[in-house]
Design goal:
The chain is mostly helical and 230 residues long. The protein has 11 helices and no strands. The protein has 2 domains: 1-121, no CATH class; 124-230, no CATH class.
Length: 230
């Protein structure tokens, strides 16, 4: 209780980024203060990291969902390794610029992980991968055990449920499952997941491709229409 009272009195909003990271680095000793500092830090730098992630991911032909996940993984790394930031090692005296350059390196590393493991999150045994039936299942894959990130993901991709509501359940399961496990255009989903789709939906792989194309075309046309109206 005492720690909570102290944390509430600290003006994190007006702290420079390096001071926020210092508080985060003491998360074992002062968990409440660290969480509040990290919340402010995340809110302050999220837009820059997400924009950078989208630019870098486009070079690998990754979609926006992967860019968001890579940015999320970057902040996870910051939470765990806040102590590694050092202004002394920075090539600039501007704190915000130094922090962003430091985070860009972390971000690029997270993006590269997709080449080998199709995820920057903690790897999951392939045999345990389940089919994804809806948006809730999808955000659970992208941000396991993190309710705040799940809420943010759900808000960003809520339009998917609206777009797919006119299609069958099989369409939705196939679309969401591929979105969860196939981050790259030229890569296939894990074999175990492909087998589950065929067995549980009682479809051939050729039929699954047709179902997926129907759903993908619907979403793509919607996105193109929205972008065209901007």
């Amino acid at each position: 209780m005492k720690s909570d009272v102290i944390a509430e009195k600290i003006d994190f909003e007006n702290m420079v980024g390096s001071e926020l990271l210092e508080y985060v680095s003491f998360k074992d000793e002062f968990p409440n203060e660290a969480e509040l500092a990290f919340y402010v830090f995340h809110d302050r730098y999220q837009r820059d990291i997400l924009e950078k992630s989208e630019i870098q991911c486009s070079k690998f032909e990754y979609n926006e969902a992967i860019a968001f996940l890579a940015a999320t993984c970057t902040f996870d790394k910051v939470w765990k390794n806040a102590h590694t930031f050092s202004m002394k090692k920075a090539n600039t005296k501007n704190v915000d610029k130094a922090i962003l350059l430091w985070m860009y390196k972390i971000l690029y590393t997270q993006i590269l992980l997709f080449k080998d493991s199709d995820t920057c999150a903690q790897p999951t045994k392939e045999e345990d991968l389940s089919l994804i039936e809806n948006l809730d299942d999808l955000v659970n894959v992208y941000a396991p055990e993190n309710l705040e990130k799940q809420k943010e993901l759900k808000e960003n991709y809520s339009f998917l449920e609206k777009m797919l509501q006119g299609l069958s359940l099989k369409h939705k399961i196939i679309y969401f499952t591929y979105l969860a496990y196939k981050p790259e255009k030229d890569k296939n989903i894990p074999r175990s997941v492909s087998n589950k789709l065929q067995e549980k939906l009682e479809l051939t792989q050729a039929s699954i491709r047709v179902y997926r194309k129907d759903a993908t075309d619907l979403v793509t046309n919607y996105i193109n229409k929205v972008n065209g109206n901007k």
